[in-house]
Amino acid sequence: MIEALPDHVWSVTQDIESWPTWTPTVTNVTRCDDGPFEVGCVTKIMQPGIPECEWRVTELTIGKGFTWETHVYGILISATHEVVAHDSGTKSLLRLNVKGVLCTLLWPIIRLSAKRNLEIENSALKARCEVSN
């Protein structure tokens, strides 16, 4: 649970270019387009141990969340970032969905690392939002 208002958590979440300043799971972010963060936007992201990937926003509900997709090693990865109001603050829900032929082979190997990275990202988001609240 994040002890901050959903609007604040959303503001930090959707400001993807600032992610490298508060989460160790992202080392570099480069927007490939200008303008607002919206469906169709493409962003290049560097993460430790992963090749640079282009993520395209496929769904967006302002103030609530977004989903974006990338392809890595023949695997389609869809990541959802959702901000949910709660009585005692805000929940950040992070989900990964993976598809592809290699997924069956590689997912057991990368699943634990992916889970750990999502936990680290959520903890870092909590710390960032509570400090800047």
By CATH's scheme, which homologous superfamily applies?
START domain
Shape by Cα distribution: globular
Estimate the helix proportion, in percent. 25-40%
In sequence order, what are the helices and strands, one letter per element? HHEEEEEEH
Detail the poorly predicted runs: none
- Please tally the helical runs, counting DSSP H or I stretches of 4 or more residues: 3
- In total, the number of domains comes to 1
Task: Give an overview in words.
It is built from 3 helices and 6 strands; from the N terminus they run H-H-E-E-E-E-E-E-H. With 133 residues, the chain is of the alpha+beta class. The chain has one domain: START domain (Alpha-D-Glucose-1,6-Bisphosphate, Chain A, domain 4, 2-Layer Sandwich), CATH 3.30.530. The chain starts with 5 loop residues before the first helix and ends with a helix. The protein has a 6-stranded antiparallel sheet with strand order 1-2-3-4-5-6.
Secondary structure layout:
Elements lengths: L5 H9 L4 H4 L5 E4 L10 E6 L2 E12 L3 E8 L2 E12 L2 E11 L3 H29 L2
Antiparallel strand pairs: 1-2, 2-3, 3-4, 4-5, 5-6
